[in-house]
């Protein structure tokens, strides 16, 4: 690939990550091309489908997400491993809307093997935490979806708001006395401005 083609490709990926993080996966390919300063035809030559662009844009994040699950499974403390996954996944979601959409519901074949492996790893973490007596018996791995839906409702709020919500949720998942992060002053106007997410 020529130097200018490599630069165009790198610029497209950078812009795609930025726009997906800001607006989710619904960003038109033409908008990505325009902000990257390339023609739409050039964009489609490098990435023939939006799925191929999303896959390339989030390769590192997918690998990071799997690494988080793998590290948590290696943690000898089942509750700490479980808690770490919830905290890190929600932090990633709070800072990058596009990645969460890609990982959870973006495209049916998008990194499906990695997503499946992450899911099974998380289910194993849930079972370990239950077996240790630290996670409530009625918690389901599918409750992760509820956590992500609740956390996704904080779009536009400071990341600290997400961290406080996650701390509340984790306390609800077990009996404990862990100290919560400090409160974040938020206006109720944020609720009125919250976009539809379903």
Automatic annotation (TrEMBL):
InterPro entries: Homeodomain-like_sf (IPR009057), HTH-type_TetR-like_transc_reg (IPR050109), HTH_TetR (IPR001647), Tet_transcr_reg_TetR-rel_C_sf (IPR036271). The keyword ATP-binding does not apply. It comes from the Bacteria. Keywords: DNA-binding, Transcription, Transcription regulation. The keyword Transcription regulation applies. Pfam families: TetR_N. Residues 6-65 form the HTH tetR-type domain. Gene3D superfamilies: Tetracycline Repressor, domain 2. Residues 28-47 bind DNA. This is TetR/AcrR family transcriptional regulator.
């Amino acid at each position: 690939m020529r130097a200018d083609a490599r630069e165009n490709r790198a610029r497209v990926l950078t812009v795609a990550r930025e726009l997906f993080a800001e607006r989710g996966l619904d960003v038109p390919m033409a908008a990505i091309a325009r902000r990257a300063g390339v023609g739409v035809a050039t964009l489609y030559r490098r990435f023939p489908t939006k799925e191929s662009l999303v896959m390339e844009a989030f390769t590192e994040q997918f690998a990071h997400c799997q690494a988080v699950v793998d590290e948590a499974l290696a943690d000898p403390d089942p509750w700490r491993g479980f808690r770490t996954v919830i905290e890190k996944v929600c932090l990633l979601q709070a800072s990058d809307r596009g990645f969460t959409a890609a990982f959870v519901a973006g495209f049916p074949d998008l990194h499906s093997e990695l997503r499946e492996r992450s899911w099974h790893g998380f289910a194993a973490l849930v079972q370990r935490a239950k077996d240790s007596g630290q996670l409530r018996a009625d918690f389901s791995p599918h409750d992760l979806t509820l956590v992500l839906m609740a956390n996704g409702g904080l779009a536009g709020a400071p990341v600290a708001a997400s961290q406080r919500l996650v701390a509340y949720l984790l306390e609800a998942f077990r009996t404990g006395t862990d100290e919560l992060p400090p409160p974040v002053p938020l206006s109720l106007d944020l609720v009125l401005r919250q976009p539809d997410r379903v």
